[in-house]
Amino acid sequence: MRKILIPCDGSDNALRAVRYAASLAKELSDVQLELLNVQDPVPQKVHAALSEQEIAQWQAGEADIILQPARQILVAEKVQFQVRSRVGSPANEIARHVHETQCDAIIMGTRGQTPIVNLVIGSVATKVIHLVEVPVTLIK
Prior knowledge:
alpha/beta
């Protein structure tokens, strides 16, 4: 069974990537979809005010809210999927997840920044492409 990772930040382009992945999963019977949301680490100030458990619960709740529309799409399309979340730098965590879970491919949305903006500040998609050794399909 091939495992396709769909990093999802809740953006319109990410949801288009979810729809595209769902259409592939319906066409190919041996595909397992995995939704992933990566939460940014909380600032040090917050660590002083909240326990690790409270922070983890808050981050899990945020990931759940962000992934809700993507889950609704996949349920409506009647395709099987798993939901995952991680905390850290999005590109690094996506790459780490691909390696740890042995995903075969990634389908992800891209914000469609201009080439100059990508050159100067980079993008998560660009960083992911350089960090992984699996095919990456970008959806605008």
